[in-house]
Specification:
With 187 residues, this protein is mainly alpha-helical. The chain has helices at 9-27, 33-40, 44-50, 54-66, 69-76, 84-111, 124-141, 152-164, 173-182.
């Protein structure tokens, strides 16, 4: 029987975090390293070859949940040749999924008694992530700049303001986008 090729420490860390994320979202800080190891298909001692302790695993899970890479890929993959309303609907779906991932992990950790961590405070990386997200949404407006009453930049900022102010009542996103694009007054 041949043994699988070894992983680099970064690959091992990524595998552990990927396996831990759904467990942390479900169990918060009550998750055990034994459960994480089982989910990752590794021995528990392997976790401690790349992480000093469970808190470091939890911190890596927070960082992964907040990482904007996936939502940026999803936003950048939205076809620019489809109607603006469809592009914005896809953008809302991607942004909602990202916020859901973050909320699940952070909420479960807080609910299980993990104190607020400095990593959750405003930081340069958070500001950079927000700027990158804004740029990706701006690109969705740019093909329609000629039809917009506002600049693409203003439309982006207004759209993101509406998106982030929706609160828990998500309503029908098609209605929100229709009012955003065409106003509340009858045509």
């Amino acid at each position: 029987m041949t043994r699988a090729p070894g992983m680099t420490p970064d690959q091992r860390r990524e595998t552990i975090v990927r396996a831990a994320l759904p467990l942390v979202a479900e169990l918060g800080s009550a998750v055990t390293t034994a459960k994480i190891a089982r989910a990752a298909g590794i021995g528990e001692a392997t976790i401690f070859r790349v992480f000093p302790d469970k808190d470091a695993v939890l911190a890596a899970c927070i960082a992964a949940a907040m990482d904007p890479s996936q939502v940026l890929r999803e936003l950048e993959s939205i076809p620019l040749d489809q109607p603006l309303a469809d592009r914005l609907t896809e953008a809302v779906d991607a942004l909602d999924a990202h916020l859901g991932r973050m909320g699940a992990v952070i909420g479960a950790l807080r609910a299980s008694g993990t104190p607020r961590r400095p990593a959750l405070a405003r930081s340069e990386s958070r500001d950079a992530a927000q700027a990158a997200t804004r740029r990706a949404v701006l690109e969705l407006f740019e093909p329609d700049q000629e039809q917009l009453r506002l600049s693409a930049e203003q439309a982006t900022d207004t759209f993101l303001g509406v998106f982030f102010s929706r609160g828990a009542d998500r309503g029908r996103i098609a209605d929100v986008i229709d009012v955003f694009l065409h106003g509340a007054l009858a045509r």
